[in-house]
Amino acid sequence: MPVILARVDDRLIHGQVVEGWFKRMKIDRVIIVSARVYADSAQQALLAWAVTEEIKVDFADGKRAAEMLRQPPALKENICLLFSGLPDVEDFLNAGGQITSLNIGGLHYAPDKVGYSATLFLDAEDKKILQRLKEKKIELETRVLPTDVAEDVFAVIDRKEKSNG
């Protein structure tokens, strides 16, 4: 399968992603899947600048990313799908995109979100999307770096909710 990493990180490109994930996974191409960034050429320029020259960077919304992966050149590359949020993941899947697992690497604090770990903050809609992804049999794990121990997202949520009892 051409997609060797599908990750949600609201910060998108940063040191942990480039140095930790891209190098370890030998990523050749990253497709940043974000409707917001896809419509913003200034954001695209900044994000492309943050990646080494060896890695190709593409920008897409969910529909465009699904189309890109159906094209033959994608079959010869190690691809990372980097989503800015869970709605972008769902848009990608609804457009016919396919993934078997999803790393939730960073959904950070926002006033309307509940914290489940230092890097996992969710609102009610995020939790509904996660449930729908689980129903599609997509493995949902959370960790910051590939060397960290992966944890099931729902185990993290359940643990926090039980501790708040």
Summarize the structure in words:
With 165 residues, the protein is α/β, with parallel strands linked by helices. It has helices at residues 15-25, 35-38, 41-49, 62-69, 86-94, 124-135, 153-164, and strands at residues 3-9, 29-33, 56-60, 79-83, 101-106, 114-117, 120-122, 139-142, 151-152. It has a single domain, classed as Phosphotransferase system, sorbose subfamily IIB component (Fructose Permease), CATH 3.40.35.10. It contains 7 helices and 9 strands. Helix 4 (62-69) crosses helix 5 (86-94). The longest helix has 12 residues, at 124-135. The protein is globular.
Describe how the helices and strands are arranged:
Elements: E1 3-9, H1 15-25, E2 29-33, H2 35-38, H3 41-49, E3 56-60, H4 62-69, E4 79-83, H5 86-94, E5 101-106, E6 114-117, E7 120-122, H6 124-135, E8 139-142, E9 151-152, H7 153-164
Helix pairs in contact: 4-5
Task: Give the structure's gist in a few sentences.
With 165 residues, the protein is of the alpha/beta class. Helix content is 39%, strand content 25%. Strand 6 (114-117) and strand 7 form a beta hairpin.
